[in-house]
TrEMBL record:
<comment type="pathway">
    <text>Cofactor biosynthesis; (R)-pantothenate biosynthesis; (R)-pantoate from 3-methyl-2-oxobutanoate: step 1/2.</text>
</comment>
<comment type="function">
    <text>Catalyzes the reversible reaction in which hydroxymethyl group from 5,10-methylenetetrahydrofolate is transferred onto alpha-ketoisovalerate to form ketopantoate.</text>
</comment>
<comment type="similarity">
    <text>Belongs to the PanB family.</text>
</comment>
<keyword id="KW-0566">Pantothenate biosynthesis</keyword>
<dbReference type="GO" id="GO:0000287">
    <property type="term" value="F:magnesium ion binding"/>
</dbReference>
<dbReference type="GO" id="GO:0005739">
    <property type="term" value="C:mitochondrion"/>
</dbReference>
<protein>
    <recommendedName>
        <fullName>3-methyl-2-oxobutanoate hydroxymethyltransferase</fullName>
        <ecNumber>2.1.2.11</ecNumber>
    </recommendedName>
</protein>
<dbReference type="GO" id="GO:0015940">
    <property type="term" value="P:pantothenate biosynthetic process"/>
</dbReference>
<dbReference type="GO" id="GO:0003864">
    <property type="term" value="F:3-methyl-2-oxobutanoate hydroxymethyltransferase activity"/>
</dbReference>
<keyword id="KW-0808">Transferase</keyword>
Length: 274
């Protein structure tokens, strides 16, 4: 498969072909997403929960992101790879945001960065874009701001709130955002925002009127928790079943059977046993 670039994504968008995105947080999860043909692999700060066992994304820092981005980049050879700017790495000033974005690209080796927020990020997005770094905007439910949003709550359920989301997206697009993640909003609102924009939108809990979809891989596999949006794709039960079978077969000495062992010739064995 040829490397997916920003140009590839633009072409998919122009053709009206849905863009597929999945998160990954390490080498194997990146490999499987890439082999399965994902257009974009996102190293989301959700890795704080799904890989590090934290309660939310607020504690995730730049060093965590860089370590995980580097591992994902080694595993995903073809997908376009985006890394999240974690909370605290971009809010202070546009300069801070450029510095953090440069680190994600130069040390984390990702192709683009994702930033959570709204119209207030205009100048910041402009600066990151001017530094030659593709920016994905993330609007709607922005988990880093859960304390201000009053928890993980669906956004855009009132006309005022939906209007603000649209305004946020338009300002961010104007500042240089080349793709959006729209999280947790009514499908009609996401579809309308998508229609008004000139760049693709990738939805999560935002209906099928977006230009593509994204899921958190661990939600999907169900190894950690049952999928919120994805019960029908969940195969986490398979991993748990496999591990339980391994446990049982070790206990009963059924594993490892002969086929899983390394042979030695009879001659050598007889000499050894003497
Ligand atoms: O961190 C993440 O996984 C994300 C997706 C939910 C879009 O931001
Ligand atoms: Na995220």
């Amino acid at each position: 498969r040829k490397k997916v670039t920003m140009q590839t994504l633009k072409t998919l968008y122009k053709k009206g072909e849905p863009i597929t995105m999945l998160t990954a947080h390490d080498f194997p999860s990146a490999h499987v997403a890439d082999v399965a043909g994902m257009d974009v692999v996102l190293v989301g700060d959700s890795l704080g929960m799904v890989a590090l066992g934290l309660d939310n994304t607020t504690e995730v820092n730049m060093d965590d992101m860089i370590l995980h981005c580097r591992s994902v980049v080694r595993g995903a050879k073809s997908a376009f790879i985006v890394g999240d700017l974690p909370m605290g790495s971009y809010e202070i000033s546009p300069e801070q945001a450029v510095e953090s974005s440069l680190r994600l690209v130069k040390e984390g080796r990702v192709q683009g960065v994702k930033i959570e927020g709204g119209e207030e990020l205009g100048p910041t997005i402009k600066r990151i874009t001017q530094a030659g770094i593709p920016v994905v905007g993330h609007v709607g439910l922005t988990p880093q701001r859960q304390n201000a949003l009053g928890g993980f709550r669906v956004q855009g359920k009132t006309c005022t709130s939906a209007m603000q989301l649209l305004k946020d997206a338009l300002v961010m697009q104007e500042a240089g955002v080349f793709m959006f993640v729209l999280e947790a909003m009514p499908p009609e609102v996401a579809a309308l925002i998508t229609q008004r924009l000139k760049v693709p939108t990738i939805g999560i809990g935002a209906g099928n009127g977006c230009s593509g979809q994204v899921l958190v891989q661990i939600d999907m596999t169900g190894n950690f928790q049952p999928g919120r949006f994805v019960p029908k794709f969940t195969f986490g039960g398979e991993a748990a079943r496999g591990i339980a079978q391994y446990r049982d077969e070790v206990k009963s000495r059924a594993f490892p059977s002969q086929e899983y062992t390394y042979p030695i010739t009879k001659e050598e064995l007889q000499k050894f046993e003497k």
